[in-house]
Specification:
Distance between the termini: 39 Å
Number of strands: 13
Mean pLDDT: 94
Order of helices and strands: EHHEEEEHEEHHEHHEEEHHEHEH
Structural class: alpha+beta
Radius of gyration: 20 Å
Largest sheet: 13 strands, mixed
Oligomer: single chain
Length: about 300
């Protein structure tokens, strides 16, 4: 039996044990991660936390809705038991009717087919780090190889554990120009999230500097459940010219080659970003975005104007 549980009543110890031991466990689904990025979240739980389903939610104009928070890639069903299409459908169908609008991403182990949900496929690029670096780098594109040579020719330096504020500020000044939905609170939220990841031993920052000690590219990563996941980062105009971000990503791959990890680029609907990821020989896996709209017609009209 699936139970709907308010946030205050969730047993977070049992919840996190489920995420840790689930074959599809993701760092995004841990209670502390959800607490960091969600304004509110409740949950659907089956059994004694054998299967869980987080529900991030907000309220606007008096209407409650389920949404996908920033810095949170995939949620959905996590379970100690096999996750079938029937199970995923059952959990989606158990979302309380008070949530008149639902827009969220399921994780890659979830297949859903409910007719009252609009379902869109999303893709993530990844590199399997099980092989040695020589084998992995054989799949690098010629353009990537040229950029790595360019970076080495310019004698760039990679430094680990740079100040997280530098990563966030660089991201704000570069990528932030194209992210009109980002507000000041989101950058503060990202800062706090990276700080928490580092303090808990799940996060790391890196920067690539030019010979004149200028930060040309920076990134934050998180590692959990046999995955290294690229969180956020950016390259300056100079960094793009000298292949600084190519150098940084190559370093991550080289440092972890021969492990049992996956390097998850996080995916992107932006063609140029996906092309950059694929230049590392990255493969793709699919996950689903599900939407359901039971809003009153006048609210739908207001939503379309925004």
């Amino acid at each position: 039996m699936i139970k709907y549980i308010e946030h205050r009543d969730i047993d977070k110890k049992k919840w996190d044990e489920c995420i840790t031991n689930s074959p599809n466990g993701f760092i995004f689904a841990y209670s502390w991660y959800l607490d960091s990025v969600c304004e509110n979240w409740n949950a659907l739980v089956e059994g004694d936390y054998q299967t869980v389903f987080p529900l991030p939610w907000k309220k606007k104009l008096g209407i409650s809705f389920v949404y996908q928070p920033f810095f949170l890639n995939q949620l959905g069903v996590f379970s100690l038991n096999p996750i079938t299409e029937e199970l995923a459908n059952k959990f989606l169908d158990s979302i309380p009717k008070k949530f008149a609008y639902i827009d969220m991403a399921l994780n890659y182990h979830n297949t859903a087919t409910l007719s009252d949900f609009a379902i869109t496929q999303r893709v993530v690029q990844y590199v399997d780090l099980n092989n040695d670096y020589a084998s992995i780098s054989k799949n690098y594109s010629e353009n990537l190889k040229r950029n790595l040579k360019k970076a080495k020719k310019n004698k760039v330096r990679l430094i680990k554990n740079i100040m997280l504020e530098k990563v966030v500020e660089s991201f704000r000044l570069t990528q932030g120009k194209n992210l009109k939905m980002f507000r000041k609170k989101n950058y503060l939220q990202l800062t706090d999230l990276i700080k928490k990841l580092i303090s808990m031993g799940f996060g790391q920052t890196m920067g690539v500097y030019s010979t004149d000690n200028i930060l040309c590219a920076s990134a934050s990563f998180m590692q959990s459940n046999n995955r290294i996941i690229y969180l956020k980062g950016a390259a300056t105009d100079k960094g793009k010219e000298i292949g600084a971000m190519h150098y940084l990503m190559d370093y991550i791959i080289k440092e972890n080659a021969g492990s049992n990890l996956l390097f998850d680029f996080g995916g992107s609907v932006v063609e140029s970003v996906a092309r950059f990821n694929k230049s590392f020989g990255a493969k793709e896996y699919v996950y689903l975005q599900v939407r359901k709209n039971n809003l009153p017609k006048f609210v739908r009209w207001i939503k379309e104007l925004k």
